[in-house]
Amino acid sequence: MTIRDELAEFCFALRYEDLPRDVVEFTRLLLMDQIGLTAVAGTMNPEVEHLKIPELFREMGGVEESSLVTEGCKVPCLNAAFSNTAISFGGFDGFHRAALHLPCSLVPATVAVADREHASGKELILATVAGAEIMARVGLALGASQVYNRGFHPTSLCAPIGCAVAAGKLLGLGRDELAQAISIAAVQGAGAPPWPQFPKSPHSDRAQLGRAAQSGVLAALLAQIGVIGISAIFEDPRGFLRAHSEKPEPEKLTKGLGEAYEVTQTTLRRFGVGMYSIPGIEVLLDILHRHQVRGEDIERMTFRLPSAVVSLVGSPGYPSGDATGAASKSSRYVLAFTAYHGEEGISFTRAYKTEANLKDPRHIDLFKRIDVVAEPELDKFFPGTWPAILTVRTRDGREFSRTHNGAVKGSPENPFTAQEIEMKFTKVVAPRLPKQRCDQMLDILRRLEETNDVSCLAALMAATDGLSKGQEKYQER
User: Fold this and answer.
1) In a 3-state reduction of DSSP, which class is residue 392?
2) If you write DSSP's letter for every residue of 53-115 in order, what string do you get?
3) How far is the C-alpha of 453 from the C-alpha of 461, rounded, in Å?
4) Residue 352 and residue 258 share a domain
5) Averaged over 357-385, what is the pLDDT?
6) Where are the alpha helices (DSSP H) in 225-359?
7) What are the angstrom distances between the C-alpha of 117 and each of 222, 224, 389?
8) Which of 41, 116, 290, 298 is the S-S candidate for 77 at Cβ 3.0 to 4.6 Å?
């Protein structure tokens, strides 16, 4: 039995009743978190409006299968998977320990297929667990540092495989069909990390995640009609692992399969910034509070990170006003912003991306006095944790230095409670959607296991106003 076949066997045999209660509950909260973020993606991510991705797919038309977020209509499932995923990237989405944007690349596509198939809440949870398991294991087997070193983006490589498995579960694929879907998806992953192109924030990162999700769903549909993939896709020296990693660890694909679930190793974010910046923000907030330091008191900051991620978040270029996506990925900028605005300014908001804040002379000045440097001693912990060291020197000669072990708020080691996730959902969603619609979404997500058809939830996500078909479906469910 090949590795691919072993993974397919596990996913085919996995049943909702097999899942531990804590895994079900965490997955429900992960779905709540990401579905809320996807529903407001058009307002949370103003740069998406420039891309006009949802509008493009609405104009294409086609078979009405899955709800298209921001447009309030249905389009072919493949198009919804692309668009809904693309607009979801770059917000408060969760981050898996394999350095994967797992929720935003897996959940919107999975919901699109569930919408098409009129799947139940339990089936959505099961598909999400299965897709996350395989996607994460592929990421761990590749090794994020190795993937970055070869010029690839880990999420863009792994998401097609995770989405193929999730879609396959919802489509009711057999054991062999799931195996074919995995190998078909594995040859479709691509995408380079575009973020070193500061200060201009590229839009291709969204497009490549949308394509990754769409490719995964397509792989499952192709397998369903009998398309055959490569059986030894993971073992072959010219196969998936060796193509993208100099030192892959294929044993991580199957070791301990079924003993624990990788979905629970996802960190849910309290700050809508690049994951690698969050340890620095938490340390800075502690220093500001503990030592009564204000932004104007800071002379210099030095932020030390694992070598592989410095190029992703440490650009010396200041984010430009017409490319605000760069702000969320610039550690120097978000630290400068946090120094002046504290926790209230950075938690569950996008205030740092407004034109006024980008042009604030205080932020610009402090930005110039922040260094982001590689710390080889931290490399041994990456990926898996997000360690960092922040040193703050004040104008009156004081110096504070803290090491963060990477267990940020929302991580498996320091998790959110259900109440905190609901609070995040409300703080992010409520200001942007009609109250009735927000309440209805939250009601479904609280009782997701009791929902017989999640198309009512998908329609609410996609609705453009409070009197939507989504609410009609909600009343009918």
Assistant:
1) strand
2) HHHHHHHH-----EEETTTTEEE-HHHHHHHHHHHHTTSS--EETTTB-HHHHHHHHHHHHHH
3) 14
4) no
5) 91
6) 240-244, 278-290, 307-313, 325-329, 331-346, 355-358
7) 16, 14, 48
8) 116
pLDDT in tens, 83-105: 999 999 876 889 999 989 999 99
Tokens 């999400």 sit on residue: 128
For residue 413, how many other CB atoms are within 10 A of its CB? 12
Q: Show the domain range for 119.
A: 3-267
Indicate the pTM of the whole model. 0.88
* Backbone torsions φ then ψ of 317, nearest 5 degrees: -80, 135
DSSP 8-state class, residue 400: E
Which domain CATH number covers 389?
A: 3.30.1330.120
For residue range 117-171, list pLDDT tens digits in order. 999 999 999 999 999 999 999 999 999 889 988 888 999 999 999 999 999 999 9
**Among all chains, which residue has been given the structure tokens 């990237």?**
89
Q: Is residue 202 part of a domain?
A: yes
The span from the CA of 354 to the CA of 365, in Å, is 17
User: For 345-439, where are the E strands, in sequence order?
Assistant: 370-374, 388-394, 399-404
Q: Cis (ω within 30 of 0) for the bond into 412? A: no
Domain-terminating residue out of 341, 369, 404: 404
**Could you tell me which of 326, 352, 424 has the C-alpha nearest to residue 37?**
424
Helix, strand or coil for residue 47? Answer: helix
Rounded CA-CA distance 160/252 in Å is 18
Amino acid at 168: G
Token duo for residue 239? 């196969």
3-state secondary structure 435-467: HHHHHHHHHHHHCHHHCCCCHHHHHHHHCCCCC
Reduce the DSSP state of residue 178 to 3 states and report it. helix
Q: Is the domain of 129 the same as that of 234?
A: yes
Element (H, E) at 302: strand 298-305
Contacts of 363 (CB under 8 A, 6+ apart): 333, 336, 337, 340, 357
Transcribe 218-250 into DSSP letters: HHHHHHHTT----TTTTTSTTSHHHHH-SS--G
Assess whether pLDDT exceeds 60 at residue 268.
yes
Are the C-beta atoms of 45 and 272 separated by less than 8 Å?
A: no
Task: Say if residues 213 and 180 touch (Cβ distance below 8 Å).
Answer: no
